[in-house]
């Protein structure tokens, strides 16, 4: 079921400072910030040869990463996103095995314009897993 | 400086159960466990098309992941490892920019037999970064 690691997402309290860390200190290519109000985040991509890291800053009053940052004020690794070929088939297989899909179980259109689902971290060793159909 | 994402490491309290999650529930290829007493962990690799995920279980009394698991009993994402071409040059550049290298600042031979260093999470938005020379 699992394909490529599409991205690793890191929640950060200050996107400008995080961009400087990755671009200047670590010498990586970092894209310009994109505000995604419908997802409650502003994002930049750290482009690496085999995958990408997304740095996420909360945007608006109901950001999905606000609670994580309240618990981890410096920031931290928030989720890992794997590609799947068929997200409905993946969901149905996972649900049949007892894994919990977050929300109403229906794929949403994610930050990359593709259907995504999130799996309950309690079912996967404390790791929030996003599945993205590519 | 940053090259490929070599791996994402997830600390888990029970490697057998985590292996079942990734192999059976998520349908990924998972290697057989390797005990690495000199690193204080037992590890399996989840092999993905573009990178790998390492699942780490504490081994012995002084495991470097014991404190993390005490704070996160279900487990969680522990660090991300980037490849660099020259770890001494990378270290010197990072130190000159004010970033802190953990330990005595000298590369150690990591779990893959290559020289590695860890960077202080407080300098990188709460993310523990490993650099591995490849």
From TrEMBL, chains A, B:
VOC domain: residues covered: 4-134
Protein name, UniProt field: methylmalonyl-CoA epimerase
Enzyme class of the recorded protein, top EC level: isomerase
Pfam family, one: Glyoxalase_4
Catalyzed reactions per annotation: (R)-methylmalonyl-CoA = (S)-methylmalonyl-CoA
InterPro entries associated with the record: Glyas_Bleomycin-R_OHBP_Dase, MeMalonyl-CoA_epimerase, MMCE/EMCE_epimerase, VOC_core
UniProt-listed GO biological process terms: L-methylmalonyl-CoA metabolic process
Alphabetical keyword list: Cobalt, Isomerase, Metal-binding
Listed EC numbers: 5.1.99.1
Claim: Metal-binding is one of the keywords in the record: yes
Annotated organism of origin: Ensifer oleiphilus
PANTHER family in UniProt: METHYLMALONYL-COA EPIMERASE, METHYLMALONYL-COA EPIMERASE, MITOCHONDRIAL
Family: Belongs to the methylmalonyl-CoA epimerase family.
CDD domains, A to Z: MMCE
Any one GO molecular-function label of the UniProt entry: metal ion binding
